[in-house]
Amino acid sequence: MSKNILIVDDSASIRQMLGFTLRSAGYQVDEAVDGKDGLGKAQGKSYNLVFTDQNMPNMDGLTLIRSLRQIPTYKSTPILMLTTESSDAMKQQGRAAGATGWLVKPFDPPKLLEVLKKVLP
C-alpha cells in the first residue's frame, strides 16, 4: 500500500523539489500552498504524513499543526516541519504544537527519505 503525503509550503520550488523526491521514492503526494489550503485538504483526505513550512500566508505551520492535532485522524500522524527556522525556541514551539520532527531547508533528499522511514509506520 502506498503512503499518502501532504506537502504544505508557499514556495512552489520547494513543493516541486520535495514532491519529486517523494514521488521518486514511491509515495503519493498532494500539495497545498499555505496552512489554510493544507488544513482543507487534510480534512478531505487522510494522509500518512504531513510536511509543513512555518512561514506562510493565511495560516502558518504551527497553527496548522495545532489545527491538525484537533482532528482525531491526525492525533498521531507524523507531522514534519520543513523550514528555514532553526532556533531552539522555534523548535520548542513546534514540539509544543505537536510536530513530530524538524528539518531545516535546504533539505538533503537522502537524509529526508531516511527520516521518513523512521517516522512512517
UniProtKB/TrEMBL annotation:
Q: Give start and end of each Response regulatory domain.
A: 4-120
Per its UniProt record, what PROSITE patterns does this chain match?
RESPONSE_REGULATORY
In its UniProt record, which GO terms are filed under biological process?
phosphorelay signal transduction system
Query: A Pfam family for this UniProt protein?
Result: Response_reg
Q: Which InterPro entries match?
A: Bact_response_regulator (IPR050595), CheY-like_superfamily (IPR011006), Sig_transdc_resp-reg_receiver (IPR001789)
> Coiled-coil region(s) at which residues?
none
Residues modified to 4-aspartylphosphate: D53
Among SMART domains, the record links this protein to: REC
The UniProt keywords, alphabetically, are: Phosphoprotein
Q: What is this protein called?
A: Two-component system, chemotaxis family, response regulator CheY
Write down the species: Atopomonas hussainii
Question: What taxonomic lineage is listed for the species of origin?
Answer: Bacteria, Pseudomonadati, Pseudomonadota, Gammaproteobacteria, Pseudomonadales
